[in-house]
Amino acid sequence: MHFATEEEQIAKFEADEITQTYLDILRTLIAKKSIFAQQIGLKETARYLGEIFRQAGAEVEVDESYTAPFVIARFRSSNPAAKTVIFYQHYDTVPADGDQVWTADPFHLSIRDGLMVGRGVDDDKGHITARLTAVQKYLAAKKELPVHVTFIMEGAEESASTDLDNYLNKHKKSLRGADLLVWEQGTKNPKGQLEISGGNKGIVTFDVRVKSADVDIHSSYGGVIDSAAWYLINALTSLRSPDGRILVEGLYEKIIPPNARELELVERYASRTAEEFKAIYGLELPVLKEERQALLRRLFFEPSINIEGISSGYQGQGVKTILPAEASAKMEVRLVPGLEPHKVLEQIQAQLVKNGFEHVEVVYTLGEKSYRSDMSAPSIVNVVQLAEQFYEKGISLLPTTIGTGPMHTVYEALEVPMAAFGLGNANSRDHGGDENVTIADYYTHIELIEALIASYEE
């Protein structure tokens, strides 16, 4: 079997008229700042997508019921027995502000050194145009689709998919019954294997606050008066063992354990190691789980509690001898199947009270449930077999990722087998400066999606 080289893929990319047409559309998409967190560009970008898909021949609905419009674009097959493939996408991005280093304007698509660089080129606007390109290439060659193809595109994925459940509840009757849903994006791992995954962790985020007095107190009283800072530190420490296990009674009993196939997939395909983390991040503290099986089980199948940020007292120049009257922290728990965000937060609050820290105020901020698949659905097996024809280093098949997204929300509404795979690479820098994809990976993804469509031919 011949696998195309990077040079061959770049040459095909440059010579392909349809690909170049939609590359111009990607340029326009990236130039449109559509950032839910900043409440900018959402309606404009949704309406632009609606127009692009109409021009491509789709039946389009732009539902503006909520802050970020929901875009549905349907390409119909004339075959009365045709199945349906859904592409779930999002058109919002995270910001690209001054806290990040970019070598060029993040909202201008740069093409250089075999890379395409810009905010959203991987997460997730590049996936929208690549998949639409594949549909158009198939139609140009065959005139008719063998399968119904539906794109659903939301605009709040980077902000916990606000209102997605409402949109899906409203439209689920017309969207249910699909053979496969292809998730927003995916990547190649450091080994060059295409990762195909079937789930993600959930999350609950929350703030914790302590007020110990009306004013900061002179620190000479520190031997007899508690401070908000010490109180909060001790409270948080009581929720986690030194090896990272969550110390909340009854939490682990609610977890749905992985089945034998899910365990086997992670054992076979997961590439994460303690040594890899040390090399990538320059770790100076010990890894909590060094042994491979224990590390993988914690990463993929167990929850974790994390401090995102903590604040208390004086942080200026020199010293200020006080007992801080207030302390706060931003927290999260990464969830696995069986754990519901609000219920987990109730358990944490109860555990703090039981541990003697009833003065900690716990405030919910956002939450998403988790989803996991053993990847045995026939439509997912079909994706795996197709992908093996395009990636020389092979594939990595995982029942879940260690990240978070609204997979559970989508599955609960649509009840469809889901697989995440895409055009990213191990250094695509999603959410960071110089977000990028390679031209070769972009074009290979187009070819894979075109082959997926073709696989539904009778």
Automatic annotation (TrEMBL):
One of its GO terms (cellular component) is cytosol. Residues 199-355 form the Peptidase M20 dimerisation domain. The keyword Protease applies. Keywords: Hydrolase, Metal-binding, Protease. GO terms for biological process: lysine biosynthetic process via diaminopimelate; proteolysis. InterPro entries: Cyt/Met_Dipeptidase, Peptidase_M20, Peptidase_M20_dimer. The keyword ATP-binding does not apply. Pfam families: M20_dimer, Peptidase_M20. One of its GO terms (molecular function) is succinyl-diaminopimelate desuccinylase activity. This is Peptidase M20. The lineage of its organism: Bacteria, Bacillati, Bacillota, Bacilli, Lactobacillales. The gene is dapE.
